[in-house]
Amino acid sequence: EIIEKRRVIALDENEGIYVRDIKTGRVRAVTAQSYLLKPYEELWSKDLTPVVEELLAKESSIKGRAQRDQTRVVVYKAPHNTCVQIYDYKEKKARIVWGPDLVMLGPDEQFTVLSLSGDKPKRPHVIKALALQLGPDFMTDIVIVETADHARLSLKLSYNWMFEVDSTSKDTDKIFSVPDFVGDACKAIASRVRGAVAGHSFDEFHKHSAKLIRTAIFGLDEKGKIRNRFLFSQNKLVITNIDIQSVEPVDSRTRDALQKSVQLAIEITTKSQEAEARHEAERREQEAKGRLERQKIEDEAEAEKARTNLLKLQAESAAVESTGQATAEAKARADSAQIEAEAKVDQSRLSSEAEKIKAAAELAQLKARQESEIKHQKSLNELEISRARDLAAIESSKFKRIVDTIGAATLRDIAAAGPEMQLQLLKGLGLKSFMITDGNSPVNLFNTAGGLIGANVGQ
Question: How many CB atoms lie within 10 A of CB 52?
Fold first, then answer.
């Protein structure tokens, strides 16, 4: 017989179930794993207070979730800049989760529900919340006060507040020490304001309401200046600023009288301002007329002074004109002579410079001409040497070609042909060689023989 069918329950990291051991009765939470109930285990339903159920249901309806499954681990997302206090009834201690974070309740843990004051004026137990806002934020309250002359006023005040706490500090649980910090702070501030207003008349409070209220709440420092913060040491709540939004009388007759007095004051102020403006305009007009008359007198005095200076200058000009012409002519002649002398000096200097430049130019021209002639003669000599070298090379080559063409034997025959012909001629004539000389001068027999032979050939 099958009594019950069980399946594996798949759980995400942010999901869990409550499991109770039937043998021991111990309840534990299983999270972030797929789990199959054991034979001696069953799912356990966690009951929450109606307020917590309502708050979780409201959050689920906003996010579109279905009704809470009581066997599932209770999950709450703590918003940014908030903190949630969770109390473990088994361990008898509390823990604080700082947002943004995910809160998962254990089997013996419960949320600390905040029951705060709300509405205007503040009423207790209006706001229910699981997370405590750390601020900065503001809250508004309406305070009924009574002045020294028994005028009842309704003050609408707005307070800027924040918790001066750090998640790393050791006394963070102080922020939950006051169950309704809104109501407690508003009551404390209202008490101070009522005490301060009671010591002043309506007219005085109406003129200095902001200063009186800020002084009553923040107090004064050693220098007599108003402080800029009001600390509640029991839960570390700090009031940083106060805005007085409105001040209205509670009694209708007082309100009407105040309105009439305000209108009358506005009318009186307006008329006084108009009269003051009219008197100021008249005063400025009189001052302007006085300045104008004084300016006229000063201008006439300045004109007379200028006229006196003009006559003085005319007299001085006439004296200068009568005595200065000769001086001017003499000075002009002296200046002319000086200019003429300076001109002659400059002319001489320029002439010498011109001669110097001319001599230098002629020297340069002569030097250039000589250098040009030297270069020309050098070129001619080089051409002549080259020509002679070329002619010698040509003659040498010509002689060599002639010698090579005629041959050595032919040349030898030509050289020996003359003496042999002469010898043959002498032999043909049958003469012996003879010579007549006085013995004073040497005789060249070869030339003599050549001459004789030549003479005979000519005949």
Answer: 19
